[in-house]
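fyi for ur records
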Amino acid sequence: MPRPCTICTHSERLEIDRLLLQGTSYRDIADRFGLSKTSVFRHKESHIGTDLRDVREVMVAAREEALAQIKAEELVTLEDVKAEIAVEARESIAARLEACHDYFGQLRILRERAALALETAEGAEDNKVVLQAIRELRETVRLWAEIDKTITSAPQINVLISPEWLELRGIIVTALRPHPEALEAVLAALPDESPRSG
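which gave:
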């Protein structure tokens, strides 16, 4: 059976270990505590190294476990906060839209939301969402202009140049040729954009 370590059972073991960890020489420790230099060396190699490795392994494992638990709690908390914010935002936006008295008020709110989405996407450098937000803003602006009658999306039709009108005008002019006064009166009554030749 091996002999027990004299330093492990020494009354000043903690101080000896502290000095060894600080790098104090084996000779200085041995002289100060009445030990052999060899016993100080053996103690450091056999017991302090093992003890420190065990402590370090336990500390690393505990730290990793604590970090994992904190991350899990943060993730749950973050998801809860995001969900609450989303619900509040939906309720708040729905209430604001409902409270609007006209289309312009509703469009103003939608424009604000699209602009906020654009800023958020730009900050996250998410090009796909940036382009979607730009399309939404463009559509909001177009719709606003249509409601304000600044622009119109209805097609512009000029009946005076349509093939059907030109054919009908030709029939009318041909029918009125024997009656020059009537033909002149009809041609004078036609809008300025209408062709005059008969």
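The chain is about 75% helix and 0% strand. thats all i got for now
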